[in-house]
Amino acid sequence: MSTLRIISYNVNGLRAAMKKGFIDWLKTDPADIVCIQETKATKDNVDHKQFTALGFHDYWFSAQKKGYSGVAVFTKIKPDAVEYGTGNKLSDDEGRVIQLGFGDTRLINAYFPSGTSGEERQQFKYAWLDEFLNYLNVQKKKYPKMILCGDYNIAHKEIDIHDPKGNKHSSGFLPEERAWMDRFFLTNWIDAFRIIHNEPNRYSWWSQRFPSVRIQNKGWRIDYISVTENLKGNIVDAEIYPDVKHSDHCPVYLKISMK
Fold first, then answer.
1. Residue 250 maps to which CATH number?
2. Which residues are known catalytic residues?
3. Do residues 14 and 41 touch, judged by C-beta distance below 8 A?
4. pLDDT value, residue 50
5. Residue 237 Cα to chain centre, angstroms
6. Which H helix or E strand runs over 24?
7. What is the pTM of this model?
8. How far, in Å, CA of 1 to CA of 7, rounded?
9. Nearest to 223 by CA among 192, 256, 258
10. In the chain, beta strands by DSSP E
11. What digits encode the pLDDT tens for the residues 56-105?
């Protein structure tokens, strides 16, 4: 295991994505580990044998509420350990975080809350973010080498959103959310994509309300793979795949040396 290829992908409903060719895409071998957010499903109501047939071990952490949230990891490398949830009941009931161990490196797959449905969920998002950062700080003491994949539901900087001025009051680009991202990266995390790419107009999500926005690339970069500072020198490649279309999001990719 000299290098790992990792994909993070909010599929906006795994069963829906499977109907749009998700399995055929997996057959192209895009990664060794595929971290999925927003499964909107449990393992027993998905034809999960299709994943094992492709050589994946599959691990699921689903929400208590049917058809909502949920994360899963499909990995061709069997992990040494799997941890479900963070111990925060409100978060765990929504199936938001799963952690896998590979040697001395820990991989966390997280689906951050959205605040777009109203003030109550926005406040939940702020509380979740603070609690999650505390959780990450505790985990880093135990496992100094970490990779955090997920739909963060925040565009960090103006370069990460097509219309920063028009969205300054929009959930996902609020000053408080962007300040949380600043604090997160100050705790020795690295935005892997920006190590490789500093160009604008690179996005991972486009609103479904206006189908033309994806064609026009009026998007947001809200999906990230971050690594701890001690893995910065191990980053080999990072990419975003906007042409992969099973969802309103697209996959983001990291290739990292594990030496």
1. 3.60.10.10
2. 151
3. yes
4. 97
5. 17
6. helix 22-26
7. 0.97
8. 16
9. 192
10. 3-10, 33-37, 57-61, 71-75, 81-84, 97-102, 105-111, 145-151, 189-191, 223-228, 235-240, 252-257
11. 999 999 999 999 999 999 999 999 999 999 999 999 999 999 999 999 99
